[in-house]
Here is the input.
Amino acid sequence: MGFREPQGQLARWLEELSQYDMEIIHRPGRLHGNPDSLSRMPATLECFGSGSASLLASLPCGGCNYCQRMERSWGRFIQEVDDVVPLSTASLRLTGHQDAPIGLDHLADEQRKDEDISHMMDWISGNEPDEDTLALASPALKHMWMSRQLFQLINNTLYRSHPEINVLQLVVPEDLQEQILKLGHDVPTAGHQGTKSGNEHVLMIVDQFTKWVECFPLPSQTAEVTASTAVREFFSRFGCPLQIFTDQGRNFESNLFTAVCESLHISKCRTTPYRPSSNGQVERYNRTLLNAVRCYLNGRQDRWDECVPYIAAALRASVNRNTGFTPNRLMLGREVTSPLELMFPIPPSSNEDLSKDSYVTTLEGDIKEAHAQARHTLSSTQWRMKTDYDTKARDFHYAVGDAVYVCDKASLKGRCDKLKSPWKGLGLVLAMMTPYLIKVQIKNSVSAINHDHIKLCQDRELPKWHLKARHRLDSGPLYCHCRKPDTGRTMVQCNTCLEWYHCDCVGLDAMKAKRLPEYICTDCADAHKSVQ
Here is the structure.
């Protein structure tokens, strides 16, 4: 096929171009100034070989324009100084020309451009305003001038000192506030809210006092994976804790995890079943972590585990309301440096001139002072939380023989949990073991249940078995699991709940029961383990 018989796309283009009168003229390269400058634009990088040798001829580049300029600028200086630092020590290869959006020098210039901040900088430098000038000032400038003792100029940059803690706050101009907020809040390290690596679970470890949090994405929650991660990632760095408080998951209740705790001499406790409030601190961190992960998925749910380390770092850098300090301050004795602080460094403090021994002593004193203040704040916060809870708490009064319903948390295969009734029963109150622990009978099953997992029955008609059981309770005392009266057989009394049991029902003979120094029934023993 040729131009004599064009077909397809070529024919269509020739048909479109046939309506124009065109003249093709050769244009030499020297006349193509605009595209030629773009293709030959030199990079702003320094030569990688500069500084590696003293003679231009011995450089790897053979003495490029950059090295020649450095030789003209610094050659005389090098000859006059014996010990010279190399002209260039960087070996980072850049692939673009994008610079940092904001820097400390740039922000100082922007402060001068801002009308209110520039006036404030002049006023605190010694040129105090008169009444007429102050009357014409903006409300923001008047507010800053009223608290002028908090502002200070450091390296031609305006800072504000916090009135309560020793912290310098950078005064940000209005034009840069949106960018600063994005750098401080719209990145994963800010922590505002199945993967390719196979992770499906998160192991969260929280220190009860400092609120230090660690989050480890895991591919599974088996006992082996959980125990190895806790020992390798947490215990090896922070040491073995005195006590571990976990839920009753199979990975924590396994023989392997229990053996690991025993070998490391760690006291292990567990929460009460179906009561997340017994370990509310971790549950609250779980909700915060989940909300933050949702904010950074961007439709890629298979990469949620990549955000978890950054969110955990943000939680450690956030001030905890209960302690008044960040977990970093209480655990490390200092605040970690964030990317935003690298862009806007804080002026050096007087502590940087201390010797090593003085610095260690000062750091130890700061940590002790922070821990003392945190303990005082925790005590006040716990008292306030208890007062708030007691204000909204309802006082439950149950009596023996009451008809109650029991909260049903069990999940049945093939049944939808959202459509099933949240209560089961009818149940009968047999005894008040403690003011909050109640013994309830549901048909032939007897169990000890917390008071907030039952509610009074308001049914007008009750089943026959319930009426008969209540009649037996009213007619006389019933004993043991069998709920039968005293028939003259040998009985043993529990030292905790003071309930009497038939020896035949609890597997004891008369002689062995008489030799026992004390007897604890199975219900009281299970309740004691749950409390621990």
The domain at 190-345 is CATH 3.30.420.10 (Nucleotidyltransferase; domain 5). The first helix runs from residue 8 to 17. DSSP finds 20 helices and 14 strands in the chain.
